[in-house]
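Example record used in the benchmark description.
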Amino acid sequence: MGVEGAVFKRLDDPYWPAARGWSKYKVRETTDAIVEAIASPPASPRSLLRGRLRGP
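Model output (structure tokens):
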């Protein structure tokens, strides 16, 4: 949809220009896949060989 995420701050925090204190919630798109191989330790995978499931 073209939306990267939402930026927010606590209600009780004042607004300070150019100050870090805001948080960003990023929108994530998910899909089902079949993992065929892991090219690193399974506890901290760096790359996966995966296949995407086809619809009916």
